Amino acid sequence: MGEMSIDRETAPLADGQDGGAGDVSATDGSSGSSEAVAVLTITPEALANVLDIRSQEDDPGSLALRVAITGVAGTEFRYELGFEELDSIGDDHVRHQVDDLVVVVPADSVEQLQGAVLDLPRDAGQGGMVIRNPNRPDPMGSLPPGVADELNGSVTERIEQLLRDHINPGLAAHGGYASLVGVTDDGVVSVLMGGGCQGCSVSAVTLSEGIRRMILEAIPEATDVVDATDHSAGTSPFYT
User: How many Å apart are CA 89 and CA 62, to the nearest integer?
Assistant: First the structure.
């Protein structure tokens, strides 16, 4: 049986109800639908590769390619790819025909896969295939409703409460924390990333897409959030 890999990990494409594939990581960068609209694209080269692998199965025409998001690894989604019997795929999957291949995507993965491309690696020496997905997981999640109303005191005090009660508990899972350096008169908030976040290769994303969003959402006076961390001094980053 053939094998498909994405980025640096491999996932066997197998015939069976379990999806036949393990979790894999991805890179950045459309074909699936409930019989019409494409979710992710498959390049001609990748399609030829998938069809070649499927041709090694006993009944290739009965198999669809299932693509699903199964979790998050750092700032990337984790994916599962596998062949599944068309007759076993329920109505909770969006499907799309690409030449002789049916591509199916679980409904709960559709939004996060919109605009993604299944392709061959640009490096000729790299095997398998890659998913280039323009979407990224939210590194910090969402603030509970009403958080802004629960904060009290000056701008500085409210930001410190937000960091302590709603931001740092999430960063603590990675051995890190964020602390307030200061707030300028025009509302620019400086934040220092410490612990496992200092020198962390994804802390800039965490700040720009997570912490910054939370502060701007909860603190009306805040106009911007900047990273005051000297990441070159980090010695034990959580992610490398």
Answer: 11
Domain boundary pick from 98, 132, 166: 132
Q: Give the model confidence (pLDDT) of 179-223 as tens digits.
A: 999 999 999 999 988 775 545 555 555 555 678 888 999 999 999
Residue 182 and residue 187: Cα distance in Å, rounded?
10
Q: Which of 133, 130, 134 is nearest to 45 (CA)?
A: 130
The Cα–Cα gap between 171 and 169 comes to 6
Return the structure tokens found at 93. Answer: 């999957």
Distances (CA, A) of 26 to 52, 108, 171, 207: 22, 18, 23, 22
Please, are residues 61 and 112 in contact by the beta-carbon 8 Å criterion? no
> Are 16 and 105 members of one domain?
yes
pLDDT single digits (tens) 61-78: 999 999 999 876 656 788
pTM for this one?
Answer: 0.55
